[in-house]
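[Q] Does anyone have a clean structure-token version of this?
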Amino acid sequence: MSKIYLFLSLFLLLSQLGLTQNPILKKGEEGFLYAADPAAEVYNGKVYVYCSHDVDNAVNYSTMQDYLVLESDDLVNWKNHGVVLKPREYDWADGQMNAPDVAYKDGWYYFYFPYNKTHIGVAKSRTPVGPWEEAVTDKITTIFDPTVFIDDDGQAYIFGSDTKQDIGDKGRHIMGAKLKDNMLELDGPWMRLSEETVAEAVHCFKRNEKYYFMARKGWSTSYWMADSPLPTEPYAEYKGIITKRQIDAPTHMSAIEFKGQWYYFYQRGDVNNGSFWRRSACFEKLEFNDDGTVVPIEYTLNEGIKINKPISPIK
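[A] Here you go.
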């Protein structure tokens, strides 16, 4: 009994400290799914992580066809809602369905999902977890790995990379565009935002009036900083690499502030008997130096989230 008491006391202590263990979902748990491409959002005091879904026997990404959501109010205890959106039920959406994102505006949650890899469809719901209904009957634009950001003034932006299809300048760059108030149409052309090329997985967030862009460059996550959400003259300033080289899965990330602390969500394929095509969502604390630059991120597993010490960013 004393061992059980000690275990329970330790568990409660870790919960109070806000520590967790990666990955978020663990193989063997009821309802386990491979949750990839985590797009974390904060709604109504809770964290919702919208993920693409790798099937158990995946040997490539062609079997990606639906989406799931995870929910937590403390980042320790997670509710797995399972698959909540199956876009192939819409007669206009088919093909490979990779990384999604969700944004909230005027009473609606908008679920942006790619089909045929780069065609962007949209579903909507009155709640963060659904049920979801068609918001459009065709693609709203073409981009790879869409992410949507709403600024403090209510203006919405969509970002991605032209990895699979050139939009404007040839090459793979961070791309951005305004969205109209209806959240379903572009309000102007796509604009190139980075001098440097990227592979995929663009993400944008704002902190202390600075705009941060993250993307996969090589086998790591790189980031850029800018004074505006569409930095075209000049482009966003490249700041360097902030994660180790990761070859078990392509880096795909998002970042949120929750209860005064920033967090970095990502995926890995070296857990849950996974692989490059069977990935699991994880997260770490995200720290910043005094000048706003990002502290390099240390991946953790099983021992809980570590607090990084401020050091100079990796170049």
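[Q] Thanks! Anything notable?
[A] The longest helix spans residues 2-17.
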